[in-house]
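Worked Example 4.2. Consider the chain below.
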Amino acid sequence: MPTAHPLRRIALLCGLALLAAPAMAQQDAYPSKPITIVVGYPPGGSTDLMGRMVGAELSNRLGQPVVIENLGGAGGTIGAQKVASAAPDGYTLLVGANNEIAIAKLVTKKVKYDMGQFTPIGVIGSQPMVLVASSQTGVKNATEFVQLVSKNPGKFSYGSSGVGTALHLAGEMVKEQGKLFMTHIPYRGVAPLANDLVGNNLEFGVFVLSSGLPHIKAGKLVALGTTEAKRSAVTPDIPALSELPQFKNVDISSWFALLGPANLPKPVADKLKKALGDTLQSPEFRKKLEATGTTVASPTLNTPQFINGEIAKYAKIVQFAKIEE
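Applying the procedure from the previous section yields the following structure tokens:
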């Protein structure tokens, strides 16, 4: 077969270079228009707050407006699905919680996306959850909680914000490790859960720390322990459940991450990672985030490794508790 003339080969290579040039220029110029951050919940919740705080910082660092699109429904999965299906150009991103990123796929067949359909940019931060008791129980600490529930298997219930949420999984982890028998009562959000606990219509419950803290500080609910391996710096007076021998392996939190669609061009992903990394190291941002009860993630955290580890942890709890929606 005759080889192409050298001049033709040079012309062909030049043509390919010209075709590639606009795409490379677009990536180098990124971002050249507003960025949308999708939040899979209505305004006002912890994930929405996280999205707005991060969005403002990214806007300052990237020099383009960042618009928050609240796309609530199905426990955050509608918003996550939109980002998973978006064009991989860096203009549609997700600030999501572990519910829709790592748990939902394990508990319902309705979720069609998985982590392979996202480009992880970085973990933003985490909050412990807190196990609480209503005043009717008379329980003042985790030791008394274990004693009461152990002596009355099946008599007591605990509530969460819904089936397959991080709060539900935290409650089931406590049950498994403490060898306790309690009934799970799912609520449609933390507001009705708080109402029933404060009204003494429910004995125990699990909250994200920032949601439960106002009721604890007001003396309406009793904090029995937080769910991360160590006490929260925000509430050093509340013991970690792991301080009790039977709960030594309780370590579960509610966390938030920034993701893009799969196959983001490396230059785009790198710019986003740098912008987020610089944000997480900003003293002002850290102070704002810590004021919400959030522990800021390390910019050097290996995000894919972290998320995969969390999915493996949740899978064990889901299997133990036979959680299915």
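The chain is about 45% helix and 20% strand. Strands lie at 35-39, 66-70, 92-97, 118-134, 157-160, 183-186, 204-208, 221-226, 253-261, 295-296. Compare this with Example 4.1 before moving on.
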